[in-house]
C-alpha cells in the first residue's frame, strides 16, 4: 500500500522504530497524498477498521472523503499543510500485561501534529487500535516539517526510514521547537507537553556549540548574539492560547524565570586553544583514560537540507514481498514509466534559526522553509527551498509540458509524467552549480 500510494508513517510510530522503544497504545498516523485518500481509507475498511467520524464530519466515509477536505490554500486552520483527518478504529486483540505500560501513554491522542482528531474517553471501555489518515494539501512532507519540534520529524516510507535530527533525538533526547513557513499548529502545546513527559528536553534556543552550520551555500545566520531573550520565550501563541513553554520545563539546558517559564540558560565559554607545549607533553604522555569525555558534536544542522543528506540517518528497509510502485494508470499515462523511488526521496528544505523577524516573537525555535514544486508534468508535488533549483526545475519541466501538449494536440501519444526524472534533474543542477563555483576558484 505504501509503495502504491506514497503513504508515509510518521509521529510516534516512526520515533519508536528509531529509538527501539514502545509507547503503549499510541496511534498510527498515515500521511497521505490527497489523490490517494480514498484508496488508503478503503484499504483500512477492508482490514476490519471502522470509520469513526468527528462531530463536525460526515457520518459516511465516502461523503467525508469527497466533501470534507479543507478548501484553504495551506490546509485546515489549526494544522498547516493538512486538508483533513480521517480516523479509523477497531478493537485490539487481547495481550498479556508486560509491565511496560505507562499511565501517561494509555489511549493517547494522535501523534505528531495529528492530535486534532476526535477526543477519546480517559478510560475506554475496551482497548482499541486507532489509525488516523492525515490527508495533506500538497505533499506529506509539508505536514511533517510543520511538526511542533524536531524529535517527531522521522519518516518511514516503503523503502527507507529517515530520521532528520538523529543526534539530538536519539542520542541526546533533545528537541528544538519548530514551525513551518506555512504557519503553526494550533495545539502545539499538547504535543510538546506529551514529549516532555516522555523524557525529551525541549529547547527554544541553541547554544553556539549545538549548531552545525550549513556546508552548502547561504547558511542561515546563527550567531551567539542572536539568542532569544526571556520576553521572546514568554510570547503568547497566535491563537490566544498560553505559550507552550509555560507548560514544559527543563532543568538541563534552561533556567526558570521568576514567572516559571522556560528561558535559555547561559552559554559556557569555549575552552582555550591548546599551546604547543601542551600538545608536545600530551603526545609523550600515556594514552587518555577510556572514561574521558567525548568531544561535543553539534546536534542541529542548519541551512540547506535534503531528506537523505549527511545530517540524517537513512536506513534501507527490506523489500521482500513489496511490489514496486506501479506506473500511473492507463490510458492517460500509458507512456509514463514506474517511478524508481518514493516521492518523499526528493525533499529539500531550509532550517532557519533563529526564525526571521517578526516570527521569533511568536514562535521561538527554528523555522522550516520550503516552496512547492508542482506542474502538469508531475504526478505529485515536492518540496524545494532553493530558488535557483526551483527555477531550473520549472524550466526543465515546462519544456516537457509543452512537448506533452503538442503530442496531445496531434493525438500522437498519451500524456506522460516525469516524476521519475526528478532525482537526475536535481543532481544535474547541483553538479552544474559545483562546476561553476569551482571554475571561479583560483589557487596559486
Description:
Helix content is 23%, strand content 18%. It has 444 residues and is an alpha+beta fold. The strands form seven sheets. Strands 1-2-5-4-3 form a five-stranded mixed β-sheet. A four-stranded mixed β-sheet has the order 9-18-17-15, with no helix packed on it. The protein has a three-stranded antiparallel β-sheet with strand order 6-7-16, with helices on one face. The N and C termini lie far apart (57 Å). Residues 100-124, 217-271 and 276-286 have low confidence and may be disordered.
Average pLDDT number: 76
Q: How many separate helices? A: 11
The CA-CA distance between the termini, in Å, is 57 Å
What share of residues are in beta strands?
A: 15-25%
What is the C-alpha radius of gyration, as a whole number of Å? Answer: 24 Å
Amino acid at each position: 500500500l505504501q509503495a502504491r500510494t506514497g503513504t508515509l508513517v510518521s509521529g510516534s510510530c516512526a520515533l519508536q522504530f528509531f529509538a527501539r522503544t514502545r509507547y503503549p497504545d499510541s496511534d498510527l498516523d498515515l500521511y497521505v497524498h490527497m489523490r490517494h485518500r480514498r484508496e488508503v481509507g478503503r484499504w483500512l475498511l477492508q482490514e476490519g477498521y471502522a470509520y469513526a467520524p468527528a462531530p463536525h464530519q460526515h457520518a459516511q466515509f465516502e461523503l467525508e472523503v469527497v466533501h470534507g477536505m479543507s478548501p484553504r490554500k495551506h490546509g485546515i486552520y489549526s494544522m498547516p499543510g493538512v486538508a483533513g483527518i480521517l480516523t479509523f478504529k477497531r478493537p485490539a486483540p487481547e495481550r498479556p500485561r508486560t509491565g511496560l505500560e505507562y499511565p501517561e501513554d494509555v489511549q493517547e491522542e494522535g501523534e505528531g501534529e495529528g492530535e486534532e482528531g476526535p477526543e477519546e474517553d480517559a478510560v475506554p471501555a475496551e482497548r482499541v487500535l486507532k489509525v488516523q489518515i492525515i490527508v495533506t494539501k500538497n505533499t506529506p512532507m509539508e505536514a511533517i516539517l510543520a511538526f511542533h519540534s524536531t524529535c517527531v520529524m522521522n519518516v518511514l516510507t516503503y523503502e527507507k526510514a529517515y530520521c532528520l535530527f538523529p543526534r539530538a533525538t536519539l542520542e541526546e533526547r533533545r528537541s528544538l521547537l519548530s514551525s513551518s513557513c506555512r504557519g503553526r499548529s494550533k495545539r502545539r502545546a499538547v504535543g510538546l507537553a506529551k514529549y516532555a513527559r516522555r523524557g525529551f528536553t525541549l529547547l527554544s534556543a541553541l547554544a553556539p556549540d549545538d549548531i552545525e552550520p550549513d556546508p552548502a551555500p547561504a547558511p542561515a545566520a546563527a550567531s551567539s548574539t542572536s539568542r532569544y531573550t526571556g520576553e521572546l520565550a514568554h510570547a503568547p501563541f497566535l491563537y490566544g492560547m498560553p505559550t507552550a513553554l509555560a507548560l514544559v520545563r527543563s532543568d538541563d539546558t534552561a533556567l526558570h524565570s521568576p514567572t516559571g517559564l522556560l528561558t535559555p540558560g547561559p552559554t559556557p565559554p569555549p575552552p582555550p586553544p591548546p599551546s604547543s607545549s601542551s600538545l608536545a607533553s600530551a603526545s609523550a604522555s600515556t594514552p587518555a583514560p577510556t572514561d574521558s569525555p567525548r568531544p561535543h558534536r553539534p546536534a542541529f544542522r542548519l541551512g540547506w537540507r535534503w531528506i537523505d543528506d549527511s545530517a540524517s540517518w537513512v536506513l534501507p528497509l527490506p523489500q521482500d514481498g513489496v511490489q514496486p510502485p506501479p506506473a500511473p494508470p492507463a490510458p492517460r499515462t500509458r507512456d509514463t514509466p514506474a517511478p524508481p523511488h518514493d516521492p518523499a526521496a526528493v525533499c529539500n528544505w531550509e532550517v532557519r534559526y533563529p526564525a526571521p523577524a517578526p516570527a521569533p516573537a511568536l514562535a521561538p525555535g527554528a523555522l522550516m522553509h520550503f516552496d512547492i514544486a508542482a506542474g502538469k508534468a508531475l504526478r505529485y508535488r515536492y518540496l524545494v527551498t532553493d530558488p535557483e533549483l526551483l527555477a531550473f526545475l520549472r524550466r526543465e519541466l515546462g519544456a516537457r509540458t509543452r512537448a506533452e501538449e503538442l503530442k496531445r494536440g496531434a493525438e500522437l501519444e498519451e500524456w506522460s509524467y516525469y516524476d521519475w526524472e526528478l532525482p537526475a534533474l536535481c543532481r544535474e543542477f547541483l553538479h552544474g552549480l559545483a562546476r561553476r563555483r569551482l571554475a571561479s576558484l583560483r589557487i596559486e
